[in-house]
């Protein structure tokens, strides 16, 4: 920024006189100003905006764009993952609403870094005042996406950890109520948190071309609740892991006791304990085999959240403009005045006031790695096979042979080809009618002395008429008495 005498006023180079600038517009609390009553009464001098141009080496702003391009690559991977969930069958993706919603939260964070690449926003409202969400539309959008995405990621990580804990430790089957409860926790709480954060604290340009949350009440409005849910998710995850270890060790001990007591007759109580332990182990093993990816991404995301939360909170505490900071920065400010605004000769003194470039760049890049973690843990090699099958069947499908009659009748609504109606119930009467209904009538020949006799429908079978009477040794028949029943 320009530091001519008309803007500098009575302030030494490179400072600018605050009274020469309006007290409206931009983020006024983001000014780095200090009173210099020794030079002139009621004189307040401010460091030109942006402050990072004076505390970091040349090219720092351009290096922060690395995080933007990392998020572009991560956004491509996230879109691929979401398209796979939406298009491919479940057998290829094993999709679940917990995975889909977590990926959507990551996409919001990635969009917060992608938008400034297209809008190229101005970080400063004037020579000493940074822009905020009220003076820059790009700042408002990128800051809102960043805060909402951060909230959504933490909440869906918490919901995933809670669901895994309930399934493994309490054998709870997640149904429709769990689904709607998860939607409320995963989306409504981030919306409420975003509204409170923007109204009470706001966002502004602090470093880089993405707006971040301001200093005032940031710990109470954003970082505190965010870290609380992250801590709950971490506790649930550790309890679940501890339960799995306990079940595994218990199954090993039960098998060992069964082997040692094999010479003794088994008891019912001991057999039931062994079976119960083995059943629990098999159930837990099955759930862990299905959910290990979700458990892993919970731990990774929580580690990221803790890392950049600690860095941002420490930056808020160290860069908040107050008398303590001004007193601490006196050697650096004196150096700038002594060297006529040559910051390179005073960077060693500024390093104690702000976080190092490596940490700041690491935080920005870590924010963009969430998309890579999602693809690593929730993506599968079978998705590639699913896309190959999709393109093979949808785009490169060979035309099948269709007869001329089928083509001619296919457009006629009165000649719809339908499959024959299947008989739903089996009836002996229907079968008999089908067998005898179409039989030809019997015609008696002229020269025949026989004629067919219809069967008697009301005559019972008498076994005495179908068996010959037994004979005794003398050849006479013996009369038998047949008792009914």
TrEMBL record:
It is found in: Membrane. It is a multi-pass membrane protein. Keywords: Membrane, Transmembrane, Transmembrane helix. Its main location: membrane. Coiled coil: none annotated. GO terms for cellular component: membrane. The keyword Transmembrane applies. The keyword Membrane applies. Residues 60-241 form the G-protein coupled receptors family 2 profile domain. The chain crosses the membrane at residues 66-90, 97-115, 135-159, 179-202, 222-249, 292-315, 358-378. One of its GO terms (molecular function) is G protein-coupled receptor activity. One of its GO terms (biological process) is cell surface receptor signaling pathway. Pfam families: 7tm_2 (PF00002). PANTHER family: G-PROTEIN COUPLED RECEPTORS FAMILY 2 PROFILE 2 DOMAIN-CONTAINING PROTEIN, G_PROTEIN_RECEP_F2_4 DOMAIN-CONTAINING PROTEIN. This is G-protein coupled receptors family 2 profile 2 domain-containing protein. It comes from Cladophialophora immunda.
